[in-house]
Amino acid sequence: MTYRRDSDIYDVRTYGAIQRRTNALPPPTSMPGRLGPEVLPPDPASMMMPNNNKSISSRHFLLAKKTKMVAWFVSHCRTDSLREKYFELVSQHVPIDTYGSCGSLTYKFYVAAENAICPDYVTEKFYRAMAADIVPIVYGGADYSAYAPPMSYIDAGDFKSPKALADYLKLLDENDGLYLKYFNWKQNYEVVRRPVSGWCELCEKLNDPQQKPKVYEDITDWWYHKDIACLSGYDYLDNLLQQNMTTF
Q: What is the chain's alpha carbon radius of gyration, rounded to the nearest angstrom?
């Protein structure tokens, strides 16, 4: 029972989830979808590399109160993912205001950067931003297209360098119509802050007399599977630096 989608019981109660609204068509569904037996989550390394095939998929009153660019509320200053280093590089091109606790959301963008680049690791910082009228900038090892509708977030992994991400943020900042497209998903989807589906599934399994026992001989081998290993922040930033010596 973990946040990994290939778990026997998928549970993200402390983080959050997104589901279609009850009045939306087709019928309500939750995101992300479960993975079948023996199906692994995507490799975090592949999720952090720019890929032209990845999806970059009117609420004009929102713009009147958005007077600044990017906000980041963060409590851990040194992380395995090196998110602090990556967004320090982004801040060389666009202003990022960093706070230790939540304040007034007068910003257009919110940094939802995970402290580790690991498979299916999407935490409450992402859903906190999705629930507000602000566009999250995600930085992590999950396939975010499985967790949220197209054009509801901006994935740092889609850009070849921090400068390229900063340039796109500037484009959105100067184009109200394009920026507002990032809120269209809210017509059909809503954020569930503390989903209980995992606990409900656990209860069903415990009370099902037909449920067959299942044993993992090595739970460590399953969790730290070599094909979906967490990606080191040092490796990721070193690779970006080598590819973009003049545009970093």
A: 19
Provide the 3-class DSSP secondary structure of residue 182: helix
C-alpha separations of 122 from 160, 197, 248 in Å? 22, 17, 26
Task: In whole angstroms, give the CA distance from residue 16 to residue 34.
Answer: 15
- Cis before 32 (ω within 30): yes
Q: pLDDT tens digit string along 15-36?
A: 999 988 887 766 666 778 878 7
Sign of CA dihedral 44, 46, 50, 56: negative
Residue 197 has which token pair?
A: 């589906």
d(CA 156, CA 170): 14
**For the chain, how many helices (H) and strands (E)?**
9, 8
Question: If residue 113 lies in a helix (H) or strand (E), which one and from where to where?
Answer: strand 107-113
| H or E segment and range at residue 31 | strand 30-31
Q: Which residue has the tokens 């599977």?
A: 225
Residue type, 100: G
The mean pLDDT value for 162-169 works out to 94
Contact 153, 136 (CB under 8 A): yes
**Distance in angstroms (rounded) separating the CA atoms of residues 122 and 16:** 9
The closest alpha carbon to 144, from 177, 188, 185, 180, belongs to 185
pTM of the model: 0.75
